[in-house]
Amino acid sequence: MKKSIIRLIKAIQYSCEGIKSAFVSEVAFRQELLLFIVCISTLFVLDVSNLDSVDIQDNRIIIVNHKITDWNKFTEFAKKYGGKTLSEMAKLWSNVSIPTIHRALKKIGLTRKKRHMDTKKGTKKNALNF
Question: Using one digit for the tens of pLDDT, what is the confidence trace for 56-88?
């Protein structure tokens, strides 16, 4: 970690001194420099210290700072809406992503059972998937 930071600092110094990009690429990769610039600009614009995750969807930065804190309420919610898909459950539980719902279901010990469709017995009516 320290070596990459030192390489980035040297690359910035050399680029500020006006040395050609061929010499700059010997000191640090362009990807590292670009990543460094993006990270620094993000830290200045956003306060990302208390965030759960930062998602990029449809060329927009979406900051997710919602956690499931009441696990008893979420357990009741999961049992009530267990027949719905993860995306439908995410819409019902406000501003929570699909992976968050999946991790929460896994954390409380509920698994999603797969049902086989088009069997000899036919398809059954939607039931709870637990």
Answer: 556 565 555 556 878 899 999 998 988 888 888
CA–CA separation, 116 vs 106, rounded Å?
A: 21
Element (H, E) at 16: helix 2-17
Which whole-number Å values give the CA distances from 88 to 76, 82, 98, 111, 126, in the listed order? 16, 10, 9, 16, 14
Cα-to-chain-centroid distance, residue 96: 11
Element (H, E) at 62: strand 60-64
Q: How many angstroms separate the Cα of 81 from the Cα of each of 4, 50, 104, 127?
A: 48, 30, 14, 10
Which residues share a beta bridge with 60? 57
End-to-end CA distance of the chain: 44
- Whether pTM > 0.70 for this model: the answer is no
* Cα–Cα distance measured from residue 116 to residue 109, given in angstroms and rounded to the nearest whole number: 22
Question: Comparing 7-11, 34-38, 45-49, which segment has the lowest mean pLDDT?
Answer: 45-49
Coil vs helix vs strand at 33: helix
Q: What is the DSSP letter of 56?
A: E
